[in-house]
Amino acid sequence: MRRVIRTWWPLAASWLLMAVETPLISAFMARLAHPEINLAAYGGVVMPLALIVESPIIMLLAASTTLSKDWASYKQIRRYMLGAGAALTTFHVLVAFTPLYDAVVRGVIGVPAEVVAPARLGLMIMLPWSWSIAYRRFNQGVLIRFGHSHVVGLGTGVRLSAEIVVLIAGYFIHTLPGIAVGVGAIAVGVTSEAAYIGLHVQPVLRLQLKAAPPVQPPLTLRGFVAFYVPLMMTSLLSLLIEPTGSAALSRMPRPLESLAVWPVVHGLIFMLQSMGIALNEVVVTYMEQPGAAATLRRFTMTLVLLTTGGLLVLVATPLADLWFRQVAALPPELVELAHAALWLALPLPAMSALQSYFQGAILHSRRTRGITESVIAYMVTVGMLLASGVVWGRMMGLYVGMVAFALGISLQTGWLFVRSRAAMHSIHARDAALASQAPTVYKALGSLPPSW
Length: 452
Fold this sequence. Notes:
By secondary structure, the chain is mainly α. It has one domain (about 1-435). Helix content is about 85%, strand content about 0%. It is built from 18 helices and no strands. The protein has helices at about 1-30, 35-55, 60-65, 70-95, 100-110, 115-125, 130-145, 150-175, 180-210, 220-250, 255-275, 280-285, 290-315, 320-325, 330-345, 350-365, 370-390, 395-445. It is globular, with a radius of gyration of 22 Å. The two termini are about 20 Å apart.
């Protein structure tokens, strides 16, 4: 358990700092001119589209943590990272700087007219996003694999520090559009973090990765593609639902309020979800070690209880209103909407921890199709509920969206549980076999550990 905690807490700190990013940026944007419009542009257009563009590389962290065991494997994954980073940056240019933008934002998403121009400015400023994320997540996987997870947390601290500098400068200048200040902070932050991770991974590559024994059989490009494509489809499908949600919220009652409150509520929830999300790479790292599955399961259930209890305390006390009024600086008419939406999100922190445990077991087995299947189940559920909300047209989109995402994520978690059972059975059988042999081995050595 000590080893699990020692690996997990820097990753959890990293995810928590990233989770702080959204409420931090929302809080500064809420204190600048036209907060509802800028928050709607940020949460309803810029971030959903930026996340979709980066979706083919978002699972590089899990892939690199799992597969970067020797220099040859590292080079195979690096080839994909470089090609994907260049292609996605080119696609980002097409979306942000050409008429394709109007076709997507006006025609497909259908956001309110006053949001279109600020969102385009934000998407233009976000151009370094995909390449920086690809490079950073790829090398973070190497750092985690070779026992340097603390560097990941420090890198996120660098990112957040850079963002705070930009946000404070933008606030005191006070003439820049809120969307430019918020998204400019993100662009500077992710670039700074990528540079920091790239600097600190070099000695690990030189002294540890290159010295690691070659993996047998060696990782081929075909083998990597077979492993990674289901993960890539998973991230693509799951992130496609973000602009789908924005499009649905735009077509239900009170669209501007829903789009403005959505990133603030999501940012608060994500802070608690981050504790469970950080567990994924820990499970991938340790599941291959004998006897680790039981420890990882106990740790997962501890996270489920702590994060769910934390959200319950927050939503059932005045703390939520204090957050939305004083920290997020929402206008009074939006605070009540945000608090009510938070009640609907109670299952989400627990689902994040459970998903990381089940998904880590599936990644360990290298049969990743079950992860893609779970995302399809999630998408179908969310899509049907959002479509029903649009057709019904009587409930505010914020509430329909929160119910849809909570139910969809719960179903996704259930599917991951089912599809991880074969992998877990194999792991338990391995551990049982090793346990049956251990007393004989220790007896031959002349000593028995207390557990035997």
